[in-house]
Amino acid sequence: MNITQKINDAPQVYEVVTKARGVQEADFDDDVRDLVDPEEVYELIRNITDPEHPLTLEQLHVTNKEHIYVDDPSNRVLVEFTPTIPHCSMAALIGLCIRVRLLRSLPERFKVDIKVREGTHQSETHVNKQLNDKERVAAALENTYLLDVINQCLATAV
């Protein structure tokens, strides 16, 4: 994989709207179970950097709150994302970055599913299968080069 060659040289960039969430006393109490909602998940992934561009997934409209579904009582999270172009070769890598960020940030009780939004990628079925197969994800994360790229993309995600 050569990420110096860009698949999409001129992606459309969108304005970022920031909204700060207030810190509450319960945020520091380990005895209080924190409910996870789509906004919290979005805050975790919106600043992930695209592998090809120095832009965030939010700026490229790859992710947005409306495509994040959280069922806290059932411990499930579904994130759907939209690649910048229908033949984006970085779709699996972007999805893997989202998965790693959520695995590192959400409580272990959550089952996380990552999917390409229906109709937005020519190989969405294949990419979705890759992103939600534990063995494939584990194998990808054993690749030190790939893990370095993922960590670079996550470096700006605060």
UniProtKB/TrEMBL annotation:
GO terms for cellular component: intracellular protein-containing complex; iron-sulfur cluster assembly complex. It comes from the Eukaryota. InterPro entries: FSCA_dom_sf (IPR034904), MIP18 (IPR039796), MIP18-like (IPR002744). Transmembrane segments: none annotated. Keywords: Chromosome partition. It comes from Coemansia erecta. Residues 39-116 form the MIP18 family-like domain. Belongs to the MIP18 family. This is MIP18 family-like domain-containing protein. Pfam families: FeS_assembly_P (PF01883). One of its GO terms (biological process) is protein maturation.
